[in-house]
Design a protein that fits this description.
This protein is mainly α. Helices cover 65% and strands 3% of the residues. The chain has six helices and two strands. A two-stranded antiparallel ribbon has the order 1-2.
Length: 132
């Protein structure tokens, strides 16, 4: 199967497929003419990667998950540990974003937004913080 067919089957752009090959997540065969020759298994791996990436897994985590996917002796605890770490990281980032949103909301709510130069948003952005 050529890269165009695989891109269509997997839903990934050819550039992403080539990138995954460059970093070793995918190793298609080569035809006699040197072109990539993708298999049905390659399409499955690409779909796996696409779903994993859409859930927020990093490329390195995808590498680990693919390795576990291919290991029939794997322990589900290993897979769960990777997913749990990703979930904890997401929850930390969500908490940070909520905190940032609340701080910005407070500034917006306290800015008069009129023709006067006084602006708590600018004041906060210009505030000097103690060095650590």
């Amino acid at each position: 199967m050529n890269i165009g067919s695989v891109a269509q089957s997997s839903g990934l752009p050819a550039k992403t497929i080539r990138y995954y090959e460059d970093i070793g997540l995918l190793r298609p065969d080569r035809a006699e003419n040197g072109y990539r020759d993708y298999s049905v298994a390659d399409v499955h791996r690409l779909r796996f990667l696409q779903r994993a990436r859409s859930l927020g897994f990093t490329v390195e985590e995808c590498r680990q998950l693919l390795s576990l996917y291919n290991d029939r002796e794997r322990e589900s605890a290993d897979v769960k540990a990777i997913a749990k770490a990703r979930l904890e990281d997401m929850e930390r980032k969500i908490a940070e974003l909520i905190s940032l949103r609340d701080a910005l909301r407070h500034l917006v709510d306290n800015c008069h937004g009129d023709n006067r130069p006084d602006c708590p948003i600018i004041d906060e952005l210009a505030a000097e913080r103690p060095t650590r």
